[in-house]
Design brief:
The chain is α/β, with parallel strands linked by helices and 446 residues long. The chain has 19 helices and seven strands. A seven-stranded parallel β-sheet has the order 1-2-3-4-5-6-7.
């Protein structure tokens, strides 16, 4: 009987593995009409296929396994510049990736949306669509990292908050939380991200297969304050004072909501690392809409806990952070353990670099290097605008960046995300100029 059971188990495993190999031999980006089902139902259908995550870990190919399964099998990135900078190591050229590098500035993205008949939010439900959109800028540009094609509000959705994208109005929350009682009734105290956000985790696994370790994959999440801002205010363009009002009028409920969000963010980003993400970026996108005092009282403790817990769970995974509109917090974020801190368009590059270095000497931070955090940013987006930019402007902006803060300990990026008004020609020129100029400067010892 034991032999028969063993034989049956082996046969079952072989059938499962054969199904996986057959599925992976088909195009990962086949296009089918979007289901008339709701978003959550469509996401469940998209992730219930015989995908690698449904197999036992031992039966999964190493490229499909989560990070726990991939470690120990000698996986190595072909281009590890980003990771090396985050670890405080010297590099032969400055790496670059761009905020919102996937998406609407790309002709192929707009054509893909048209062909599939899906809008942005609908694309996020299917791992195949997410993988395709993530890979598009990697195919077009010589970028040093891919970033998961996703949205900052997927956690809000997982907690039961409706998210919509009416034409021309951006992403909105049509029914924001109205007060503490509404919060208590509608928001669960915890969720299982492996269930509620399974489609995202499966997308990370699929992207890692498509990347073939060419460049690292950046996973990401919105920070708790940014999530709360949308959950109580509903929009980035209206009710901008609502989040701050909650902090002042409902401090206990605000703190309780932020604590829930912090735990979910930690679990969500940890799951992305387990699925294969090589680096993790935390986006505090709504720093413009919180006072400095409130930021340090409410938002910073969340950011500190996220860094501390992720470093415990994934001690070798680089942590990146972007507090847009709140870059006065870059030194405290370095102290929290973020390996790369991001400068927005208003940030003084030279002063930031000096402040980080000086503070690291006085208070060695818990970064991977044990030294000052590297910096990220903050090239002007105007130079790649399709109507106002030029290759000459791009090259001058890149030269100015290196003149200000050098080539090492730097991940070149924009000071804000691509908006859709950019020229792919100028974007390519920016990526190439960063590589060419930094390589030449490094060879000269600069």
């Amino acid at each position: 009987r034991k032999r028969r059971m063993s034989s049956r188990s082996a046969s079952t495993a072989m059938l499962a593995l054969s199904a996986l190999l057959l599925a992976s031999s088909c195009s990962a980006f086949s296009i089918a009409p979007f289901s008339l089902l709701g978003r959550s139902a469509a996401a469940r259908m998209a992730t219930s296929s015989p995908f690698a995550s449904s197999l036992p870990l031992a039966a999964q190919p190493s490229g499909v396994r989560g990070r726990a399964g991939a470690l120990g099998v000698g996986m190595k990135l072909e281009n590890d510049l980003m990771v090396r900078v985050a670890r405080g190591e010297e590099v032969e050229r400055t790496p670059v990736w761009l905020f919102r590098q996937a998406g609407r500035h790309l002709p192929e993205y707009n054509e893909y949306k048209k062909t599939t008949g899906k809008n942005f939010l609908q694309l996020l439900d299917d791992p195949k669509d997410v993988a395709e959109c993530t890979m598009q800028p990697i195919r077009r540009y010589n970028l040093d990292a891919a970033i998961l094609f996703s949205d900052i509000l997927v956690i809000a959705e997982a907690l039961g908050i409706d998210v919509e994208m009416p034409g021309g109005k951006g992403i909105t929350v049509p029914r924001p939380l109205t007060g503490p009682e509404d919060f208590e009734e509608r928001i669960p105290r915890s969720i299982d991200v492996e269930v509620k956000l399974k489609h995202v985790i499966d997308a990370v696994k699929l992207i890692k297969v498509e990347l073939k370790d060419k460049v690292p994959l950046i996973g990401f999440s919105a920070a708790p304050w940014t999530l709360m801002y949308y959950m109580v205010g509903g929009s980035s363009k209206k009710n901008q004072e609502e989040g701050e009002r909650w902090l002042k009028e409902h401090p206990e409920a605000s703190e309780k909501l932020l604590n829930i969000l912090t735990e979910v963010v930690i679990d969500y980003m940890s799951a992305q690392v387990d699925a294969g993400a090589d680096m993790i970026q935390v986006f505090e996108a709504m720093g413009d809409f919180i006072t400095k005092d409130s930021f340090y009282k409410y938002a910073m403790p969340c950011m500190e806990k996220i860094a501390s817990e992720l470093r415990k769970r994934h001690p070798n995974t680089p942590l990146l952070v972007f507090p847009r509109g709140a870059t006065y917090s870059l030194v405290p974020l370095q102290r929290a353990g973020y390996d790369i801190v991001t400068m927005d368009l208003k940030t003084d590059r030279v002063a930031t670099r000096k402040a980080l270095g000086a503070d690291a000497i006085l208070t060695p931070p818990p970064t991977l290097s044990g030294k000052a955090s590297g910096v990220q940013g903050n090239l002007p987006i105007s130079v790649i605008n399709k109507d106002k930019g030029s290759v000459k402007d791009v090259e001058a902006a890149v030269a100015s960046l290196f003149e200000d803060i050098g080539t090492q300990g730097l991940i070149a990026n924009l000071g804000e995300g691509l908006s859709g008004q950019e020229s792919p020609e100028y974007v390519a020129a920016m990526v190439d100029a960063i590589h060419a100029q930094s390589e030449a400067l490094i060879k000269k010892g600069k």
